[in-house]
Amino acid sequence: MATTPGSASSCVSWCCQVGSVFPLTGGTASPRSPRSPRSPKSPKSPKSPKSPRVPRSPRSPRPSNESEDVLSGAGPSPGSTTSCSTDDPNSKPAPKNCYRLIVAGSPRVGKSSLVARFLNNKFPDDHKPTIEEFYRKLYRIRGEVYQMDVLDTSGHDPFPALRRTSYLTGDLFVLVFSLDNRDSYEEVIRLRETILETHMAAWHAAGAKRQPHPPRVPMVIAGNKADIEPRAVMPAEAKAFVSNKECCEFVEVSAARNENVAQLFGILMDLAGLPLEMAPDHHRRLAPPADGSLPSSSAKKCTLSIKRRLSDACGVVTPNVRRPSLRTDLRILRDKTSSAGRGVGSSKHQDNHCAVQ
């Protein structure tokens, strides 16, 4: 009988040494509790979970995979940069060929409709109030690239200071009024005076760094909605107003019917001294590419197979372009007022003037 408990205790002690769970239920083994510290050696078995640390070795390949992912993810960006760098002569305009067109006027006179006709020859069916929209169009004309930024302004003027800055950065202007709205015509007259005063003030403020001659501000006053009767403003009145004005013309248009829209922009390009091919009907419209640049080789191939009236001119609207910041506008203004002529100045100023925003 005495040997039996001894054998049981020996079994319990053996189980404790092996690391079994039975010692938790055995109360008779309390005197052998000093051997229980040996059971903590069983936590060495948790060290076996340290063996999962061996899977950390696969983590070493993970960084390699991540590096591969980084390299593959970086692929498009060098691709875009290399495409831009190799195609600089074909996709980026020279600073002297960068211009900004400002379209201004009262609300609901058809400014955005004229811009849509100019860019894509489309007419929007519904009216959406414009806060401020910015577009960019690139041209290739006789082997040279031109850039035209279009700023479609709002009819409201919550921040006059910012609006004057936009006027200062503009190179050519389209002032739109509605022939059935007398107030919109009077607003156009006020806008013209504001634009001229703003440009002259900046020219005088430039001091010794200013251009030798006062700035020319090409602008066309567009009497829109010629298809609507009755009229509150007669075209003869608007023509008489611009008859004695320098660098200013009037055109009666209808954006809905696409009447005289191409003529409007043709007259504007002529006043600004720009190629006539920049008018909507005098160049071939291309679909925007994925990277937003002007196609080079494909454009040349297409031009060889299509007959055109004037030249091999083509144009494309750049997708997803963002409005330059106020700081960029101020830098452009500084370059304009400090240079002796458009496109003349340091190369640093030229790069800043036509940087892709």
Automatic annotation (TrEMBL):
Feature: compositional bias, Basic and acidic residues: 348-357
Primary location recorded for the protein, binned into one broad class: membrane
Topological category with respect to the lipid bilayer: Lipid-anchor
Subcellular location as annotated: Cell membrane
Highest taxon of source: Eukaryota
GO cellular component, one term: plasma membrane
Sequence ranges of Low complexity compositional bias: 72-88
Family, similarity comment: Belongs to the small GTPase superfamily. RasD family.
Protein name (database record): GTP-binding protein Rhes
Organism phylogeny: Eukaryota, Metazoa, Ecdysozoa, Arthropoda, Hexapoda
